[in-house]
Design a protein that fits this description.
The longest helix is centred in the N-terminal third of the chain and has 16 residues. Helix content is 49%, strand content 20%. The protein is globular and about 35 Å long. The protein is an alpha+beta fold and 87 residues long.
Length: 87
């Protein structure tokens, strides 16, 4: 199943409901591709994470390597913007 920014135009109260459905599908073994800016959610439910930069898959791997311990400077810069908002 493909999700393209499924929470982008939702009321904040509905975001949690949509993410709960996606989490349930993942737990049931559904294969999914999720395009999202919900970085913490992606890190939590994904088996693999990709980072697109200028239309190219720049980084791809397990969430721990891509989100929690990014290697490229471009990905570090991108993720730092989300960490600042969460703080």
């Amino acid at each position: 199943m493909l999700f393209d920014e499924p929470t982008s135009a939702l009321d904040p109260e509905l975001v949690g409901e949509v993410l709960a459905v996606i989490r349930k599908l993942a737990a049931e073994g559904m294969t999914m591709i999720l395009v999202t800016h919900e970085i913490a959610f992606a890190a939590d439910v994904s088996s693999r994470v990709g980072f697109m930069n200028d239309g190219v898959m720049a980084d791809l791997g397990p969430p721990d390597d891509i989100i929690r311990r990014p290697h490229s400077e471009r990905l570090k810069s991108f993720l730092s913007r989300f960490h600042q908002r969460e703080a």
